[in-house]
Amino acid sequence: MSAAAATADAPAPKGKKKLLIIIIAAVVVLALAGVGAVLMLKKSPAEHEDADDGHAKPAVAKARDPKAAPVFAPLEPFTVNLADKEAERYAQVGITLELVDSSTEGALKTFMPAVRNNILMLLAHKTSAELMERDGKEKLAREVAREAARGLGIELEDEEDEEEDTSSKRKKRKRAPAQELPITAVYFSTFIIQ
């Protein structure tokens, strides 16, 4: 056997093994630190805002899993008299809710009378001027998601109370963490105001 072959089969000295273990450990630590940094940077802008202003806000929409099929729950159209005082006006609104998962669809069917009642009450307090503008429709979509969640038995703080707390000079009260809504989006299929 040659001298070169004998040294190739011989075990590495203990000092080289320790150095190799230290290098591997350092690479693993750096990889974990990189993964942690990526996860921190991947935090959504809404989560950054919540952390900045000191209180949590309920999210209406959250990121969808691109592999999962969306779950839609179309509601029967709503026809309601509006709160206009100068003239009799009414609205016919078709609403489709996008749900977090199919189990929420079963709960929605069970609590449908409460959900429809809450949405009807919400619509009946709107004026045609509020609903004509895009901002009014977007606000209505957020409110419909909240009222549908309330119909499902999820207790939420009123948005008006939150606005009063932030605008007043009184000491802010601590809030419980926001509960995620089971409705990820609200879509209008018809929107007629007469």
From TrEMBL:
Principal subcellular localization: membrane
Transmembrane annotation, as ranges: 19-41
InterPro entries, sorted: FliL
Subcellular location field: Cell inner membrane; Cell membrane
Signal peptide: none
Keywords: Cell inner membrane, Cell membrane, Cell projection, Chemotaxis, Cilium, Flagellar rotation, Flagellum, Membrane, Transmembrane, Transmembrane helix
The protein's role, per its UniProt record: Controls the rotational direction of flagella during chemotaxis.
Family: Belongs to the FliL family.
Name this polypeptide is given: Flagellar protein FliL
Organism the protein comes from: Rubrivivax albus
Organism lineage: Bacteria, Pseudomonadati, Pseudomonadota, Betaproteobacteria, Burkholderiales
